[in-house]
Amino acid sequence: MKFRPCIDIHNGKVKQIVGGSLKDEGDQAQENFVSAQDAAWYAKRYQKDGIRGGHIILLNPESSEYYEANVAQALKALGAYPGGLQIGGGIHAENAQKFLDAGASHVIVTSYVFKDGQIHFDRLKDLSEKIGKEHLVLDVSCRKKDDAYYVVTDRWQKFTSVKMNMDTLHMLAPYCDEFLIHAVDVEGKASGIEKPLAELLGQFTERPVTYAGGVGSFDDLRQLKELGNDRVNVTIGSALDLFGGPIPYETVKNLGTENEAAL
Question: What pTM does this model have?
Fold first, then answer.
């Protein structure tokens, strides 16, 4: 289990929010933390510590008045740490290469592929071939409905008909390099991980997987490490001290390396 850092950008600022509260209308979200630092500051910090594979997420839609400010922040971060960060949020076939050229190692895609509640394999195959699957991360973030996890799109606001399960992961794996999964119902709440989801992800071995959502303590990290068979990477947002939380960044930054301290 490795630590994968994050830089979430909303309304032009680096923030931590409650994921399920995000609304496009009025560009609203329940905020846990608003940083005085810009995205490049965090990118330089991650670069200094040699942490690769973190993700930048643009949390406003392209139609938002804040979208260009988000992109400006993101481009500064990518320029500060070329090849070290991934980027997601409004990524599609027309703009993916722009972010790769700006320094992103991967682009992260959900809504472009999961359009109108279904998987559009024509779009997935086209994008994968266009930029190379080695540069593509599929975000299959999910919420629970009727005792099952379903992939959600459009900044986690819309349910698809696609279940987030082993069959879906196996079906999508040939077209991407990694998966990113936000457990949206607990995202930003630091109230504990989604244990059934962590256990599911721990059984998947075809591609690297990063889990985000609900981590609020070292006990949560220990549970994720155990349930995920030590192969599921972790993102810590609101609970990390870089974002005003109680978990020391200095303690978790070396997870999965030879310098790892015992949890």
Answer: 0.94
